[in-house]
Design goal:
With 193 residues, the protein is mainly α. It has one domain (16-22, 29-190): Endonuclease III, domain 1. The chain is 54% helix and 2% strand. The protein contains ten helices and two strands; from the N terminus they run αααααααβααβα. The protein has helices spanning 17-25, 34-47, 52-65, 71-75, 79-86, 95-115, 118-124, 146-157, 165-174, 186-190, and strands at residues 131-132, 178-179. Helix 2 crosses helix 9. The longest helix is centred in the middle third of the chain and has 21 residues, at 95-115. The mean pLDDT is 95.
């Protein structure tokens, strides 16, 4: 993937190499596997009230302490593991967010039983095709949409915690279910499938 300063990118990518790499290589790329879908769900929940940079900087440690984001493993975490996570300075130590991630891992397992995979469930809301925003300005991109409202409501009905439409919309953008790269961004056309 090119990293040239000459490329036109979404403004939020800025000049931070980690942000640029995330923008160029991951954000908006369609995700079809449950491990990555669950990872982004946990990370988006942890971002609530914080910057994405904070979460991105802690991502490697999250992968280590969350056992590679395997939902079956995370769903089995008990109080001892919660205490370990709360004591780990490499992650965001918020009990409600940690407990929500464990609870939601069990929800992912239930969805897998019903739909075959968590990814199939999420992509089912769009007919397995990315929703293309076609935005020309960052300021026009909404923080939530009817799609994220619908998915958030369904997840809440299924018992998921710490889930709202804004968190779900960020998740959809990150996992490529929604392509919100600006039309002027070099990734916009590359990700239209």
């Amino acid at each position: 993937m090119p990293h040239s300063a000459q490329l036109s990118r979404c403004p939020w990518a800025g000049s931070d190499p980690a942000y640029i790499r995330y923008h160029d290589e991951e954000w908006g790329v369609p995700v079809w596997d449950d491990i990555t879908q669950f990872e982004f769900l946990v990370l988006e929940i942890n971002q609530a009230g914080l910057s994405w940079k904070t979460v991105l900087d802690k991502r490697r440690r999250y992968r280590e302490v969350y056992d590679g984001f395997d939902p079956a493993t995370v769903a089995g975490y008990g109080e001892e593991k919660i205490s370990q996570l709360l004591a780990d300075p490499g992650i965001i130590r918020n009990r409600k967010k940690i407990e929500a991630s464990i609870h939601n891992a069990a929800g992912v397992l239930e969805i897998q039983k019903e739909f075959g995979s968590f990814s199939s469930y999420l992509w089912g809301f769009t007919g397995s095709k990315p929703v293309v925003g076609g935005w020309e300005e960052d300021s026009r991109i909404p923080p939530r949409t009817e799609l994220s409202d619908k998915i958030a409501a369904d997840l809440k009905n299924r018992g998921f915690k710490f889930i709202g439409s804004t968190i779900i919309y960020a998740h959809l953008q990150a996992t490529g279910i929604v392509n919100d790269h600006l039309v002027s961004c070099f990734r916009y056309r590359e990700l239209i499938i």
